[in-house]
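Q: What structure does this chain adopt?
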Amino acid sequence: MRRRRIIVAGAAVAVILLLTGGYLLFIAKPAPFPSDEQALIDVLNTHSQGAEIEQLLDVLPVEKRFQFVPFVTDEKDYGMSFWVWKDLRWQPAFITYSGEPRVWKVRERDPSTYRIVWNISPESSLSTLELLMIKSRNLYMTDGKWTYEPRVQMDIALSLPDDSYKAMQLPDEWVTVMNSYQELMNGGRHLSMSPFQSLFSTPPFEWGWISKNASGEQVYPVGIRNTNIHLTGSISVDFMMWITEGQLEVAKDRVGSRANSYLASKEQKQYTLWKADRK
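A:
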């Protein structure tokens, strides 16, 4: 009888410890992000490859368990670090010495959590940074039925050096388009990007960026060093391709956040037919 009580008590203690550990790891509120800049720099420099990080430009909260920290090295590289709350401590998950734009998929199946991040030297000759989301048109047949997918081309322009570094949420219009496309692919059910699709199919949306100087000429930032350090597999960061205006569907006569009006009017009928065909 006594032995049975000991076993029951031991099992109860084990359950309590298990629940407490699970709460601390996955539910409990993270500790405040460290405010000691030098301590953070020391952590980053333990993973350095060549240049030493000498200044943190800012700490930008992304979500309660994620922080974006842009930095400058002693060789004047403008880079980025991506921090996560994991194993009861703040730690860098990804470091890049290149500040060119990337897409941080905070929660990969929820585009509303995505952040476009960058860190470009304010001393560069750039005055405009244009970010783009593109989906190529497609035509395919399944079960004897043709399906047409129209092109999507959306963009937003920002001023440099005012926005020389940032962790920007996707524009609402981009999120709406991505969710609508996914809903159509799921037969009208919004399943927010199933794990199967993310693992075994090509993502339909691509990311790009264009940079221009004060004269409106397209130029690539000088001094960007493409060195990346992956420390954990806990985050997803997508590369954004530097593209030329010649790669866009039509020449644009203004900048700003919008879907390409030419394409919208030209393909509205096809898109309606495609949507009806999917139902």
